[in-house]
């Protein structure tokens, strides 16, 4: 059975007034979603959150594949990576760090693009993008923003429908445009930047079908 909700509010003011998100200080006592910088130290991964300077050694307790994925991007020449993950902090402390971070879920891993300074992360539910042709979609509680090179930005209300397998559809037929974005849980890698995310995306605009990657935003509840 699908669950759905209809979103129709004042759209344009919200998209025009996005603010830079400043994460709260790391909570050492809870499983939480974190964004920050990933680097290498003595052959091991070290995490520093966007909001502070403490550094934590990484343990992939959830078998997310983070060490393997990071190794590939580091081999391409990156000195640091941006990572978006969920994890718990343990009491043990590795040499040269302030503790250990046990990673349970990986949302994003990238060596370029908006990271800690993403102005839209806090208010977004889903961010999706694709290449050839290029496109990007930002979804929040008040609407859907579609951007394509050479075309005017499109802001519309939408209906969200979720399926038991974790897939979600965001669809609209406003302004004479029939549009639907499907996102589904799956490892997805951007063919141009090499960035990784935990959702695949399929965008349908009228009869055109485009594929790409996506990740949940700060308002997704994930």
From TrEMBL:
Q: What is this protein called?
A: Lipoprotein
Classify the source by domain of life.
Bacteria
